[in-house]
Amino acid sequence: MAKDVDLTEEYLGYIAELGGDSQGRADARDYMDHSTATYAGKVVNTSYIPKLFDLRTREVMRQAAETMHGILCKVVEHYRADAGYRALFDMDERLEALMMLPSGYAQPIPFARYDAFVNEDTGEVRFCEFNTDGSSGMNENREATNSLSGCEPLRRFSERHMVRDCSRRLFEGWVEEFLRIYRGSDYAARLRRVAEQAAAGDARALSQPADKAAGVDAAERPHVAVVDYLENSVVTELAIYARLFEDAGCAFSVYDIRDLRFDGQRLSCPKAHLGHEGLPVDAIWRRSVASDVLAHWDESRAYLDAVRAGAVCLIGPFATNVAHDKQIFALLRHPATQELLTPAERDFVERTVPFTAVLSDDLPNFGDIVANPARWIVKPTDMYGSLDVFAGPDYARDPAAWEAVVRSHVRERVEKPYLVQEFVTPWKSPAVALRGEPGDATAPVELYNNLSGLYVIDGRFSGVFSRLGPEPIILGSHGGLTAASLWVDDVQ
Predict the structure, then answer these.
(1) Is the pLDDT of residue 385 over 90?
(2) Residues 234, 39 contacting (CB under 8 angstroms)
């Protein structure tokens, strides 16, 4: 069986046969320039070389993603059940109260993206972030793949291999799972009961929160909304889901949380960024990150009051923040967490979770953290987009600046704790950067650091978001690229 590196070498051979394929590069970039893959108002930059994953790597990713998902579900459920365990987490009291609200369905983490460094040679996996709130990137992956669909290297490669992308599972598959979860929820069951009572002539049913003439219909085909602080949201991605939910017979809308209205029974919005104005909301796909909710607390009262009242089905409960908050990396090795796990799960945590601790000047290894920047990374517990992340390797030539970073972010000097984590050297793979510049046509093949976002939908591994970068922090603002993610010779 060919390994990923062999598949990539074969692909590079086709590009070489075409003299670098300047026309194919131009076509791929032109596709991206007219695509929906934008972030912060800019077109996403991509690699002309896709990530080609063989069956072995796919299985490594599947096992890692699903095992970690099972562990995090145990942690979420124990957090909600045990006050002593909750006390180990440094959570805002307002957020903790939201995290304790019942979801009305069984799956603790309906949708997640677990970011990991995957060594495609050894099969080693090391996690760096768990995204349960606001998980995104699905459309970048889809459009990066589409940009290569008409290119000659991929055509030649596909003549010798069965090639499949993972986009359907991330789009149509998520819509199917979302509706399955919703239809089995306590909220939908209540809609059915009220509709049945109304049909039987029970006047009391009309005073219930679900007093719709089409209550049974709403239980099957809800009005689905994404509500977020839209300046922080990838709205172009949501437009793709709008079509899919509507194809499934559901109304779909995108609202800014600050525009919502709650009358004590139903949540609605008079101003739609996308979709329907004034139509009562049945189900919310939560993309709003907990830290943003806290930052806009007073402006979010209608949203929060509706969630507290159970007047809407929130898919992606606030309890998932237990896994999303990066302090989980330190707490996974805490004895109270270890007691929840099987021996195999404890071994898995030891192998896949880098050493992590709240950054404090009384750590036993504090001297090593200061003296060896190449070994460490400092990050906040609950942010996203790599905000305020400091990678030690970036400071290799300026140890004084690194020491200043470390000492200024110790627990004793900041309002919210920062973590120090063992730095993991990423796997590198070939990339050809397409940035919409004249140099795209002759851009060389370079080795870029890899970060794999492992999507899990309702507990099942569902695809990969492949990001590449020339720097230790793998992000678009640090010169990063998105690469198409393709399964090769995968018969599943």
Answers:
(1) no
(2) yes
